[in-house]
Amino acid sequence: MNIRKITLCATLLASVSSIPAFAHTSFVNPTAEQESTIVAALQVPHGCEGGLATTEVRMVLPEGFISAKPQPKAGWDLEIIQGDYQKAYKNHGADVKSGPVEIRWKGGDLPDAFYDTFNVQGKISGIAANTNLSFKVTQLCGDKATAIWDQIAENGQDPHSLDNPAPTIKVLAKQNNGGEHDHDHGAANHMADTVKAGDLELSGAAAKAMLPGQPVGGGFVTIKNNGSSDDRLVSVETPAAGRAEIHEMAVVKDVMKMRKLDDGIVIPAGKTIELTPGGLHFMFFNVKKPFAEGDKVPVTLTFEKAGKVDVVIEVGSAKGADQMHNHN
């Protein structure tokens, strides 16, 4: 095994002792089809016993949930623990024998009075229909308490009879979708129209659908500067969110850092800048209504020279947006 650490803030946690907890973690999406790529959205509804704030969430991925990609959370460190699978799986025509086996969100602060979701995208592969995939979860609260959700129902046992049941996703029989692939190529066809402002061309404004209750979303766009002088994107606004910011994610020595770009983004003369998942992007905070597939989100971008430019972000599927920028 090895650990890849993605740093969104620098806090590390001490070891913890275990005491009983008092309610259940669960998934927003409790069912999924065989051989499908999904976003498993873990709900953490409260802190540990005694009202202590959650500072770390660990999720052990079950066999058959492969090629996982966790969603970073602002204010939390992210560790991805790699390991070998018990067998080889097919994914996009290739054999996959290893990958992430545990995800840890660390160094955060989720008060007992609030809940949040911790999201992992992955493919369900080689699992029989009507099987419950169990994700063992440990919830840590500083150095004083833990809540461990690792009990698995057996032989028809009712999960509600367990004191600390592991959250599960029930695998349903795969439906006949007319030969569609397990991911949404169709989302790439829902790109916004090109908008011109001075020497700039803006195209492909897009976002992926958000999960129920998710307060933070992202957005992407391609900006081409046809002029002979540089311009700068200085701000982003939308009535759909309480606050919008320009962010960057960059990997340095296997450590990924996300930060707000207070100085905006330079758009060099004769160049094209792409805002994409895992790189430059917009962050929308306190979203009033979670973005749903098919939504059109109005956004105003302000440039030093081109001024204010209105674009419409088109929302694709939750599992398809990453594909929009990764498929050529």
TrEMBL record:
Keyword Signal: yes
Signal sequence range: 1-23
Residues of the YncI copper-binding domain: 24-171
Keywords attached to this entry: Signal
InterPro entries reported for this sequence: LpqE-like (IPR007410), Lxx211020-like (IPR058248), PCuAC_sf (IPR036182), UCP037139 (IPR021174), YcnI-copper_dom (IPR012533), YcnI-like_sf (IPR038507)
Keyword match Nucleotide-binding: no
Protein name (record): YncI copper-binding domain-containing protein
Organism of provenance: Agrobacterium bohemicum
